[in-house]
Structure formats: structure tokens, C-alpha cells
Design goal:
The complex is a heterodimer of chains A (281) and B (188).
Chain A (H helix, E strand, L loop, with lengths): L1 H21 L35 E12 L14 E11 L4 E8 L4 E11 L10 E11 L11 E12 L4 E12 L8 E13 L4 E8 L1 E2 L9 E9 L3 E8 L6 H6 L11 E11 L1
Antiparallel strand pairs in A: 1-2, 1-13, 2-3, 3-4, 4-5, 5-6, 6-7, 7-8, 8-9, 8-10, 9-11, 11-12, 12-13
Chain B lengths: L2 H23 L2 E15 L2 E15 L4 E7 L8 H10 L7 E8 L11 E11 L2 E14 L2 E11 L9 E2 L2 E2 L3 E12 L4
Antiparallel strand pairs in B: 1-2, 1-10, 2-3, 3-4, 4-5, 5-6, 6-7, 7-10, 8-9
Classes of the chains: A mainly beta (281), B alpha+beta (188).
Protein name (chain B): Polyisoprenoid-binding protein YceI
Organism (chain B): Fodinibius sediminis
InterPro entries (chain B): Lipid/polyisoprenoid-bd_YceI (IPR007372), TTHA0802/YceI-like_sf (IPR036761)
């Protein structure tokens, strides 16, 4: 009896040892970031900066294009396509996952701009952070010959961008914006405030409808109106194509606020498109 | 032989076998930060995805080889592409790509030379498990056991539909490679 008991104990121990060795490891998930980083698909909604950030060591190449007013002499101007109004070529690079810098050049007045954006907070479901907040600034210099000192050609814009992705389908942003021109046309130094609003409706993982509005707070510059744009994003993985109708010919914030003389809902809109291509460096 | 002598013999044999098993535990190697990489291509363009969170365990005593990676840790360098990849892999439902098998060729653990080995087992991802034979190298180093291996999977075999990008379609064949140094685990 004692012999068989000892035998079974030895066999049992043996089985435990062998089973322990051959067992598969228990699979464990790796904790991954819970921040919401797809409220908007691109660093620029149509003309407004967003809280979307370029990841570190990624380069975003942008081509922004706007044509002439689509409804003026529509047939003879082929809905504005015959008049290339403004083209901005830009490069933006993620220095960190929260901080990016960029440079661009617009064909209108040959404005060269440098810009930077920093994510102060990011919407996070686990950390109970309900919104993303980013600080953005740009500096533009008119390089077209105009016989005025360089300092008069300088303008800046700065925005504090608040955004929230409310659901899988809907994102909204509000961006109080300050714009300053050392000299705007013939009327001297100008300071402007605007409360930008933007939204995206994600129709699918490939398509999203977008809209943005830039109401100026206080007095408008003479002859100017609040800019409005309506667009569609097409996401392809590496590219985001943005097709839009807009009242403004500008792709730079301070000029969108200060220099939009068209009324979108009166039918004075133009077609435009942005191409965003991101490269991992 | 008296029953007392038989008892002694059983205990002696059992103890010897147990000692062998426990000795086997000393031949276990593990890592939690191995490197896994895959390559994907569309016409005129290709990209790689990689993770440094490959978890692996090799037990030389019973020749078992066990590796897995949480697919959420795979990065291609473009965040939106990562999201598309996770969606394609249904990563929330099937978070792991994993291999469990056995060494099918001899390995001389007393040698410090890199040795070609073959491992056979099951590779699972996207909820599908398939038999796989992988060729690679094993090498004993000062830091542990160095592993390098590569193989190619066909996405169709794992019921993964290659994502289309406008007019392109991602190639169904995905080369995968892993490299890791597994540290020897202390005897228990």
C-alpha cells in the first residue's frame, strides 16, 4: 500500500513538473495609449489648424490649391478652374508626438510662413481628459516686391484650439484666434480676433465631411466677411485628399480672417483641394 | 526484494527523474522585448512594421518554443496606417500573433556557434491557426540565447482581406522576421 502510494506521488510530481515546462505562456496585452488622436485626420481642417498632430519623425507634405469663384462667368471660366487663385506648398514635421514645426509658401503675394503647434492636452478616455487643447502660432512674411520695409510685410496668427471627438462619427473644434498685421494694405497696423469653429462628420474610415467658419469678433476690416468652407476628406492610408468649396482664396489663418471678401452663402464660393502626404523618416 | 527496498528504489528513481525535470527548468530562456518585423508592399511602394514587445520563451529541456506579440504594438511609422492595420486584423478581438511549437532539429547547447535550426508548430493570428515550419538560427551567447528567424505568410490563409488603397491592393504575401536574445531563467 505504502509502495503504490509513493509511486503515485512520484508520478504526480513528475507530471506537474513536465506539464509546467511544456505549458504555453499566458498571453498578456501590452498597455497602449488611450489618447484620442483621430478627431480630425489632418493637421489642417480646410484652412484652420486642428489638434491633429504629426507623430515624431514624420513629415507631412501639403499642397493646397484654390481656384477662382465658381459662379462668376461659370462657363467661360469653367467654374473657376481657369483661374488658379492661390497655391500653398508646405512641409510640417513632428519633432515629438506633441510638437511640430512647419514652413510653407503661398503664391498669393508670395507669402512665406513658418509655424509651430504644441499639444497641451490630449483627449483621453482613461485619464478622463474630455478635450484636446493645442497652441498654434504662425508667422507670415510677404516676399513679393512692394517697396515697403520688411517689417511691414510681417503678420502673425495664434490660436488656442479646443477639440473633442464626441463619438465615432462627430468631432468639433473651437479656436479663439488672434491675428496681427504690422501693416495691412494702406490702413496700417491691425489686430483682429476671431472665434474659429470647425467640425468633421466621419462617414466611414475613408470619408468625412468637414466644415469651418471664421467669425471675426468686433469690427471687420473694410469690405471683408466671415470666411466659410465646406469640404470632404478622402483617407487612403498614406494620403488624405481634401476637396472643398470655400469663400476664401487663402490657406493661411491671418489672411483668411483679414482678407476674405466673398460671401459663401450668397453663392460666391470657389473650389479648392488640399493633398496631404505623410512620410515616416 | 523487500517492500522497503522497493519503496527506496521507487523514491530513488522518482527523485532522479524529478531532478532531471528541475534541471530542465534551468534550461529555460525568456524575453519580453524581442523584435518582430513584417514587410508589406503595394505597387511601387513598400513599408515595414515592427514591434519591440515580442515575448518569447524557449525551453531546451523539452524543446518547446513559444512566441507572441500584441499586434497593437506594431508600428508602421504612419499612425493612420497603423489604425487601418489593426482594423484589418480585428485586433480588439484577436490581439495576438503567436507561435507555439517544438525544435525539430538538434541543437547543441554546449556550443557557442550559431546553429541552423528548424522549428515546427502552430502560428496563429486573426483567430486562425495553421501548421508552420520555420527555419532560423539559435546561438548561445553571454547574454543568453540569440534567436533569428524569418518566414512568409499568406494573408488569405489567415482569413485576412488585404486592404485596398484606392486602385492598389496590398500584396497578400507578408514576410515576417523576428530577432531576440532570450535571457536564461534562474533555476527554481
Amino acid at each position: 500500500m505504502r509502495l503504490s502510494k509513493a509511486f503515485y506521488i512520484v508520478i504526480l510530481l513528475q507530471l506537474i513538473a513536465v506539464t509546467g515546462l511544456q505549458a504555453q505562456m499566458q498571453r498578456q496585452r501590452v498597455a497602449v495609449a488611450s489618447t484620442v488622436d483621430d478627431a480630425f485626420w489632418t493637421p489642417t481642417l480646410i484652412t484652420q489648424p486642428t489638434t491633429e498632430h504629426i507623430p515624431a519623425r514624420n513629415l507631412n507634405v501639403t499642397i493646397m490649391h484654390s481656384f477662382g469663384i465658381a459662379t462668376t462667368d461659370a462657363i467661360s471660366n469653367f467654374f473657376g478652374f481657369d483661374n488658379v487663385q492661390n497655391v500653398r506648398l508646405g512641409l510640417d514635421m513632428g519633432l515629438t508626438n506633441r510638437w511640430s514645426v512647419g514652413i510653407g509658401r503661398s503664391s498669393q503675394l508670395n507669402v512665406v510662413d513658418i509655424r509651430t503647434k504644441y499639444a497641451l492636452f490630449q483627449q483621453d478616455s482613461l485619464k478622463k481628459m474630455p478635450v484636446s487643447i493645442s497652441l498654434q502660432g504662425d508667422l507670415g512674411i510677404i516676399t513679393q516686391e512692394n517697396r515697403q520695409p520688411l517689417s511691414d510685410d510681417v503678420s502673425i496668427a495664434s490660436s488656442l484650439i479646443f477639440s473633442r471627438k464626441f463619438s465615432k462619427r462627430f468631432s468639433l473644434q473651437i479656436l479663439p484666434t488672434y491675428a496681427h498685421f504690422n501693416r495691412y494694405n494702406a490702413i496700417g497696423s491691425q489686430n483682429l480676433f476671431a472665434l474659429g469653429m470647425g467640425m468633421a462628420i466621419h462617414l466611414s474610415k475613408r470619408y468625412a465631411l468637414t466644415a469651418e467658419y471664421y467669425p471675426v469678433l468686433g469690427e471687420h476690416l473694410p469690405g471683408t466677411k466671415n470666411a466659410f468652407s465646406l469640404g470632404m476628406n478622402i483617407q487612403t492610408g498614406g494620403h488624405v485628399f481634401q476637396l472643398f468649396f470655400t469663400s476664401t482664396e487663402w490657406h493661411l489663418q491671418q489672411f483668411v480672417i483679414a482678407d476674405n471678401d466673398q460671401q459663401f452663402w450668397a453663392g460666391d464660393f470657389r473650389f479648392g483641394f488640399n493633398v496631404n502626404r505623410i512620410f515616416g523618416l | 526484494m523487500s517492500s522497503k527496498q522497493k519503496l527506496r528504489l521507487v523514491l530513488l528513481l522518482g527523485g532522479f527523474l524529478l531532478a532531471l525535470s528541475v534541471e530542465g527548468i534551468g534550461q529555460v530562456y525568456m524575453t519580453k522585448n524581442g523584435h518582430a518585423e513584417f514587410k508589406s508592399s503595394v505597387p511601387l511602394h513598400s513599408f515595414t512594421g515592427h514591434s519591440d514587445k515580442l515575448v518569447g520563451k524557449i525551453s531546451l529541456s523539452d524543446s518547446t518554443v513559444d512566441f507572441y506579440v500584441d499586434v497593437h504594438t506594431l508600428k508602421t511609422g504612419i499612425r493612420k496606417r497603423d489604425e487601418d492595420m489593426l482594423e484589418t486584423l480585428q485586433a480588439d478581438q484577436y490581439p495576438f500573433a503567436e507561435f507555439f511549437g517544438k525544435l525539430a532539429s538538434p541543437f547543441d547547447s554546449s556550443s557557442s556557434d550559431a546553429q541552423d535550426v528548424t522549428v515546427r508548430g502552430d502560428f496563429s493570428m486573426h483567430g486562425i491557426s495553421r501548421k508552420l515550419s520555420v527555419d532560423g538560427t539559435l546561438q548561445k551567447t553571454d547574454k543568453g540565447l540569440k534567436v533569428d528567424a524569418s518566414w512568409t505568410i499568406n494573408m488569405e490563409n489567415y482569413n485576412i482581406e488585404p486592404p485596398g488603397i484606392l486602385f492598389y491592393r496590398v500584396s497578400e504575401k507578408i514576410p515576417i522576421s523576428i530577432s531576440a536574445t532570450l535571457a536564461s531563467q534562474p533555476s527554481k
